[in-house]
Every structure is written in C-alpha cells, then in structure tokens.
Input
Amino acid sequence: MTTQTDTTGTGAASAAAVCVSMLDPADTCDRCGARAYVLAVFGRGAELTFCGHHARAYRAGLAATALAVYDETGWLPRQDQP
Ligand SMILES: [Zn+2]
Output
C-alpha cells in the first residue's frame, strides 16, 4: 500500500518537479559504499541502492527482478564511458 500517484503536479506547477531526485546524497551503494545513483525497488518495500559502477554490473538482473529502477547516473559527469 505504498503506491501513491501525485496528482497535484498537473498544470503550471509541474515544471518545478522535473529535477526531484529519488536518492539523497547520503544514500550509498549497498555493495561498495560509494554514493548511490540508482535505486531499485522490489516487492514488500525492499530497496537496494547502487553506485553507477555496480548499477551497470547488475543492470540485467535488476531489470529482470526489480519492480522499478530509478537511474540517476545521467546526472554524473561523463568520465569512463567508452
Ligand atoms: Zn558500488
């Protein structure tokens, strides 16, 4: 019963919510402790957070098992992309 739909953002106020982050700077990767940029939500309210490195490492598994994946790695400066 945690699913909520925000219906207050319709209209002129919606633009203000574009940059809302699902992750806090204090959130850390559950694998290595680095700052988390990906939040994976599973059933029963379970959540895992990953840094960009581990999000890429587990991307296939997350896509197959998580109910939702919030990927905020797009906010990272590009550094080690091939
Ligand atoms: Zn990590």
Notes: The helical segments are 52-57, 59-65.
